[in-house]
Amino acid sequence: MSEDHSTEKDRAERTTAEEIVPAGDALAAPPSGTYRLQLRGTSEGRFGFADAAALAPYLASLGVSHVYLSPVLRAAPGSTHGYDVVDHSRLSEELGGPEAFGAMATRFRAHGLRVLVDVVPNHMAIPEPRELNLPLADVLEAGRGSTFAKWFDIDWDAGGGRVVLPGEGEPNYRRFFDISGLIGLRQEDPEVFKRTHGLLLGLVEQGLVDGLRIDHPDGLADPRGYLRRLAEAAPDRWLLVEKITEGEERLPPDWPCAGTTGYDSLGMIGGLFVDPAGEKPLTDYYVSLTGNPAEFEDVEREARLHAATHGLKPEMDRLLRVLHRVVGERRPGLERALVELLVAMPVYRAYVVPGEDAPQQAVDVISDAADRASAHLPEEAHADLETVVDLALGRGERTDAEFIVRFQQTSAPLAAKGVEDTAFYRWNRMAALNEVGGAPGRFSVSPEDFHAHCIRLARDWPLTMTTLSTHDTKREEDVRAWLSVLAELPGEWAEAVDRWRTWGSTPSPLEPDLEYLLWQTLVGAWPITRPRLEEFLTKAMREAKTRTSWVEQDADYEEAVLAYARDVLADADLITDMTSFVAKLAPYARVNTLGQKLVQLAMPGVPDVYQGCELTGLALVDPDNRRPVDYGRRREHLARLDTGRQPKEVDDEKLLVTSRTLRLRRAHPQWFGPGSRHEPVAARGPAADHLVGFARGDAVALATRLPVGLERRGGWGGTRVDVRHQGWRDALTGCTHMGPILDAGRVFEHLPVALLVPREIDR
Known about the structure:
Radius of gyration: 26 Å
Strand order of the largest sheet: 12-11-10-6-3-2-14-13
Helix content: 40-55%
Number of helices: 28
């Protein structure tokens, strides 16, 4: 039985100051939600410490516990992101310097907010002028004799005793992926750790920083050892790692951290809103349209091979030199076995520490890779493969610490560059699935698998982060929400694409996969301006590295692609037809947008809201997703909702879901924080598959999924959900419900989501 006796005045009275502003003990509570801010010190789009501080009242009202900042240390001149650090002993002057940082942190604390800072331990920038990076400048001058020589991961023999800088030949230092302007640091050296972390750890000790997010730990020689040192230096602080897990991979249980930055949950949440019935028709159409394989694995292998033999060749050559040294001879089979084993790695890296037995997960990972690699090697090379496997796992008589470590440090960038930055741009069967930490070959996620993931997080990693959008995602969350609808409308989608492809008299010059990505991008991110579309297409075709690339650009092809895109946007009739198709998707995309947001905010872990994504987020890959955010508009929307006014549009509805769920988490850590559980909620009836629900403490989150199919079936049709108790209020709409058995149609009468709380906590 459901009731709805609430008025706008009632709803306004329920949104009291106690709910909006955190209580006085908020600084001692466990993390309940974060808001990521991209700091930028350039004159264009500047957003520094003072700008962040000005958001304190808004972010406190939104409901987060932590402000999550991009890197804050001194970076290379003109840096737009801060990951190119040049001086670990200084806060960025371009962002405002130490005084502004201190004022910002003080203002945050006055509003009950804590600070989570992004840390970049893996590398430093090679800036112009070089003197901006004093340790590196000293190494460039003094060579191996420099007191800073041990800071950097340099192959001195390969460079003839000097550092081979960008533009001077093959770099002889470990890079961040294939970026020659970023040189790898040796955090395994205690002095390097101390000198590069002194300032940040000082800010932690002063109470100005409360948590640390570690960038790219997979680049380090010993991630576990690094984290142990960090946890010892910053005890009882919230430590997170930007670790991307693949498939059944789990974060190593002996890492002293709270969890990851949430890419694992991003894929699980997104897949929950993709209809598995759409896989075959969309795959068949994709293959017929592009001629590409039906499976992602073949494309992934070729892309990894390309990365190994092109962008990451210096790292591969260095590892091969180590292998030859250890084995004591050069055999052609060794190189091929090494390449095939790395290409076949199913995860970013295995975690083997020299001098220790390889953990079972590492043995399983490398054994699996060896099985896959052997299929691409002649019989006579299998013995060489076994040699490489034993060396990578530290087994047998010829163990070598450098090979063990460098194998892992090469494996990780090969996965990143070969898969996310190459294969993801070559195989776009469903672009919504081609996401950081995602698996394009996994079309959808069942509710059962989603709940199993959540139960594991609640048990093992209750303070891990969850996310839907980051500064690195290929497209923001609501682009994926729109594209997910296509899995429910494969026939209509194929007809639309066929119509648009043949609209004009000029045939498309685009490679088939890129053209298919173009149509998906237009529909998912509509409306989109010409500069944004051209910027995206340029990045997409260069990342694919098939007809053009960042290194070897085909100017004629690129111009032909961009001219075609301009013609599409200029064709009024085509755009009218496409806009009409997008409009048909709108009601279903709304369901996905709100559903995935509530699920992310209410599930186990600590939810992060990427800047601006409390409203609809339709940005594409960087730099599109790092543009300035209109916070004035967001303040106005939130203030209007807090006076009890009804949501006017999807932006309002998403902000309502975001703010009310974050506030509830902050007010009731016992429901959502460490020690709480994730309990699936059962639905019964003809449309039960279209409802996903779970209890967190005394709260229940309910969301609609697969809305096209729900509409085709005629709606909820008497479907009911068991919420276990009587007496509920929807924190989103104010509607009251009796229970314990609720009618789904009544629950979702106003919104396709519901956040139920006991009526007795109503103030």
